[in-house]
Design brief:
The structure holds two protein chains of two kinds. Chain A is of the alpha/beta class. Chain A has helices at about 25, 55-60, 80-95, 180-195, 230-235, 260-265, 285-300, 315-325, 345-350, 355-370, 385-395, 405-410, 430-435, 440-465, 485-495; strands spanning about 10-15, 35, 40-45, 65-70, 95-100, 115, 135-140, 145-150, 155, 160-165, 170, 195-200, 215-220, 235-240, 250-255, 275, 305-310, 330-335, 345, 375-380, 400, 480, 495.
Chain lengths: ~500, ~240
């Protein structure tokens, strides 16, 4: 006997506005809406609703809304309805709970407790509409030795660098976890913006080789789709050691999601589970990591920067120190709020630390050890806005990865049901009829709009601080103040309290 | 082209010469622990006298590497096609995530041999080990063929612990009638006469063209065949939340 779990959200239809056009029915891949002939009206089964708002957005008469159900168990400050439902779900099935997108729980968001400075009277603010405001960032090693030849001319010892027109990149999302059209939108937007998107561990579709100058390819423990051409076509190669949403565990794309096209891109058989083990089984130390980095550098003739991505965990600063000495050009640190196409709920909601704290500690540690210039730092894990980008850079990042906000630009409403493969917005699905709902011609423009708007805001905030180059903001923690933070939090972040 | 090396030669020197030469046949003498030799190489024939270091032939994409000596760890990591022939022993994680081509080892191989090997389309990787292997043989194996011939002369077992853990594709042939170690529940074992399996016979015959083993004698014995029970081993583990 399964315990019935009541719907969390209710579909409410205004009968005065509904014209029975049945758009909602056609748009819902979860089968919530249907036309009842006997009743002569549209009805909805709220139990199937994931609250993705597709029907609400597309209803031509705005007759629909989704509300939080007021059905409740006996109120209990200790046992929340969610906690109780999770017990019922596991008693019903015996399965490990699986969730999607980033940690939704009520942990502190430190970005919201940090305030940015502005110039007044002395050191005047700069008007970005009138004066040049540099947002170009180069990612890579900056610790090269200055060498001169016999004539005294400089010898080019520069290691490969990634040039970004603005300190924002799209984070790793694999083809398989997201759709072809979502990838097409990200790739085109990256090209237009002069930034990069990231293939995740899903291989690079042959159609997207044309965007290779703006593509970062990933090498993860399953090595899916990794081959010599894949490495050499990309602008940079990212070794994925961990992911903020699920530190310490691997990935698992169920066989059912491995369509013919996904199979071709990942170079694995159709219908067979794609398992990325938790560790790289050839990496048990920094020395082993160095071996993988150098095998990639050898395979690409030292022409591509290598990024090492790790999840923000308790001792991330020490880990980053090791990575900075391992030969990596860039370290990506992914905070515990980072998104995912699927992760065990317990891991997503309980493992890892916030990016703000991790980033501050990594930057601090590398500076103390005199190796900050060995690497660039990318911050990821719930960057909500341009203000978060500014704060992250002032805390020590060179640039930020954005994933969730990029998907939102494409239509995602954070219903957190990616694992079902029924994404009504055509993003986290491989079903052709759903994928075609996302038009890459429109999708890429929306991404470009968002990143351009953020860039302009970054320029305005920089101008306000009297800073005209993003490089001058990097690690500039004097520009930050904490609000409502305790002394430990301020010490970890390396910032003063507001008013100090 | 002949590259003479010694312990003073840095791996970047060897590898850039190998990468940049237009010659198709290259001989490396005196190799002593230099890593990444033949990484991402295609269409060249490499003969190595000595002891190449870790990650020999990583991402190999065609061509042939022959080692007259032992190889170390991570030989043929993520190899796509081509051949690596080792006239000695190989170290740990040989053929990690290999997708195509073949690795033939005359002697033994270390831990995690063939881990996460996978096959795709016409790519079907093969690893043959003349002697014995360490623990975790074929861990997470998703495709391809591993053959262990047990021609070692010490008294160690032909395979070791945790063979086939997480295996969900491909096949392992072990030249023995009774496995010396237990295998996981999701892997099934059957015993066949070597010569009765065409795939195995073809592989062993090809292997014996490189080394002085007698193919007929090798095949005229019982092999334990390991195959996964399911290609979706994790299917029932999750509940949507």
């Amino acid at each position: 006997m399964d315990t019935f779990i009541p719907a969390e959200y209710e579909v409410v239809r205004n009968p005065d506005l509904c014209i029975g056009c049945r758009v909602c029915e056609r748009q819902c891949a979860n089968g919530v809406h249907k036309y009842d002939k006997d009743l002569g009206k549209m009805i909805a089964d709220s139990n199937k609703c994931v609250n993705c708002h597709r029907c609400v957005c597309l209803c031509p008469t705005h007759a629909l809304k989704i509300v939080k159900s007021d059905d409740t168990y006996r109120l209990n400050a200790n046992w929340s309805m969610q906690a109780m439902n999770e017990v019922y779900r596991q008693a019903n099935t015996g399965g490990v709970l699986l969730s999607s997108m980033g940690n939704p729980n009520d942990y502190p968001v430190y970005f919201n407790k940090i305030l940015v400075n502005a110039s007044q009277v002395t050191n005047p603010p700069i008007d970005p509409l009138r004066e040049p405001m540099e947002t170009v960032v180069y990612l890579g090693k900056k610790d090269v030795e200055i060498k001169r030849d016999i004539q005294g001319k400089l010898v080019d010892t520069m290691t490969p660098q990634l040039k970004l027109t603005t300190p924002i990149m799209f984070s790793a999302m694999s083809y398989g976890s997201i759709s072809y059209n979502a990838h097409a939108s990200l790739a085109r937007a990256a090209e237009e913006l002069g930034i990069y998107y990231n293939t995740g561990e899903g291989g690079l579709h042959k159609d997207f080789y044309k965007y290779s100058k703006n593509t970062i390819v990933q090498v993860a423990s399953g090595r899916f789709g990794v081959h010599e051409e894949y490495l050499n076509t990309a602008a940079a190669i990212e070794i994925k050691m961990g992911q903020g949403a699920k530190p310490g565990i691997g990935g698992h794309l169920p066989g059912a999601k491995i369509s013919e096209d996904v199979s071709r891109t990942r170079m694995i058989p159709q219908g067979v589970d794609a398992i990325s083990p938790a560790p790289h089984h050839d990496i048990y130390s920094i020395e082993d990591l160095r071996q993988l980095i150098y095998s990639i550098k050898e395979a690409t003739a030292y022409k591509k920067p290598v990024i090492v991505k790790v999840a923000a965990v308790h001792n991330v600063a020490a880990i980053a120190s090791g990575i900075a000495r391992s030969g990596a050009d860039i370290i990506a640190v992914d905070g515990f709020r980072g998104g995912t196409g699927a992760a065990p709920t317990r891991i997503r909601d309980n493992v890892g630390i916030p990016i703000e704290l991790a980033l501050a500690q990594v930057d601090q540690r590398l500076r103390e050890e005199g190796i900050r210039d060995n690497v660039s730092i990318l911050a990821a894990g719930s960057i909500h806005s341009s203000a978060d980008v500014v704060k992250a850079i002032a805390l020590g990042a060179d640039a930020c990865y954005i994933g969730t906000s990029a998907l939102m630009a494409l239509g995602c409403h954070l219903c957190r049901s990616c694992q079902t493969g029924n994404c009504n917005w055509g993003i986290a699905t491989q079903k052709p009829e759903l994928v075609k709902r996302l038009n890459p011609d429109i999708g890429y423009k929306r991404l470009v709009n968002m990143v351009r708007a953020w860039t302009h805001e970054i320029q305005e905030m920089m101008g306000g601080m009297g800073i005209n180059s993003i490089e001058a903001l990097k690690g500039n923690r004097l520009m930050l103040r904490g609000i409502g933070l305790n002394e430990t939090e301020l010490r970890v972040l390396g910032i003063k309290h507001a008013g100090e | 082209m002949v590259i003479n090396t010694d312990s003073e030669t840095h791996f970047t020197q060897i590898n850039s010469q190998v990468r940049n030469t237009l010659e198709k046949e290259i001989e490396i003498n005196g190799c002593i622990g230099q890593r990444y030799i033949g990484t991402g190489l295609s269409g060249k024939k490499l003969k190595i006298n000595g002891l190449p270091g870790n990650a020999l032939g990583a991402y190999l994409n065609g061509g042939e590497i022959t080692v007259y000596g032992n190889a170390q760890d991570a030989t043929g990591d993520t190899m796509n096609s081509g051949a690596i022939i080792i006239h000695g022993n190989a170290g740990d994680t040989t053929g990690y995530a290999m997708r195509g081509g073949k690795i033939y080892i005359r002697g033994n191989s270390g831990y995690r041999t063939g881990i996460h090997m996978k096959e795709y389309g016409e790519h079907k990787p093969i690893i043959v080990i003349g002697g014995r292997v360490g623990s975790f043989l074929g861990e997470y194996q998703a495709g391809g063929v591993i053959v262990v011939l047990g021609q070692h002369e010490d008294d160690m077992p032909i395979i070791n612990n945790f063979c086939g853990t997480g295996m969900h594709g491909g096949v392992i042939y072990i030249r023995c009638k009774k496995l010396p170690k237990v295998i996981p529940d999701q892997v099934s074992a059957t015993v066949v006469k070597g010569s009765s399996v065409k795939e195995l016979s073809d592989i062993v015959n090809d292997y014996c063209t490189y080394f002085n083993y007698d193919a007929q004698e090798l095949l005229n014995a019982d092999f334990t065949v390991l195959k996964p029970n399911s290609s979706n081993p994790y299917k029932q583990m999750y509940t949507a939340n």
